[in-house]
Design brief:
The chain has eight helices and two strands. With about 170 residues, it is an all-alpha fold. The protein has a two-stranded antiparallel ribbon. Keywords: Membrane, Transmembrane, Transmembrane helix.
Length: about 170
């Protein structure tokens, strides 16, 4: 019922083989297996090198963008911190143009740390930095900026639950 279409034609066996398989390097693969292994290794190493070069090009293109993005984020954060200092400084409604004491009181700083919307471990890091570095004293602008720079440097502490340790024992 289903016949080979090449059987109706006057085709030799050699030509029939070429009809069944593409002629591109097939004879080299069937006659010598080392060529097949070499081709696979060459293709793998070539793709590895190509992907490394492509990754290096993409990295070098976006490195400047990433650096400027991080720098602008830090600049915005520092401007916002300075603005927060100025708002806290005049929170009583006493706007004096020439004041000798350009400080924020300790109770305002503690209240700010309690009410700010950040994660709990960051609040604890700020509170610990404030107590250890400034001993809950009033802060001037540079000290206030230094206190909030701890948010840039701090990372969440490594917490291990006791249940994990009890399972190991």
């Amino acid at each position: 019922m289903f016949e080979d279409p090449s059987s109706n034609w006057n085709v030799t066996d050699k030509e029939r083989v070429h009809l069944q398989a593409p002629p591109i390097l097939v004879q080299e693969y069937t006659e010598n297996r080392a060529v097949a292994i070499f081709s696979m290794v060459f293709l793998g190493v070539g793709l590895f090198v190509f992907m490394n070069i492509l990754t290096a090009i993409v990295y070098s293109e976006f490195r400047g963008y990433l650096a400027s993005s991080v720098q602008s984020r830090l600049t915005r954060r520092r401007v916002a911190t300075r603005a927060a200092f100025e708002v806290l400084r005049f929170a009583d409604g006493q706007v004096l143009l020439f004041t000798e004491s350009d400080v924020v009181t300790s109770d305002r700083v503690i209240k700010l740390i309690e009410n700010v919307r950040i994660s709990q471990w960051k609040k604890e890091a700020l509170r610990a930095a404030y107590i250890s570095s400034f001993a809950e004293s009033d802060l001037n602008a540079s000290e206030f900026m230094q206190l909030f720079r701890t948010l840039d440097l701090s990372v969440p502490p490594f917490q291990v639950s006791l249940s994990v340790w009890s399972m190991c024992v």
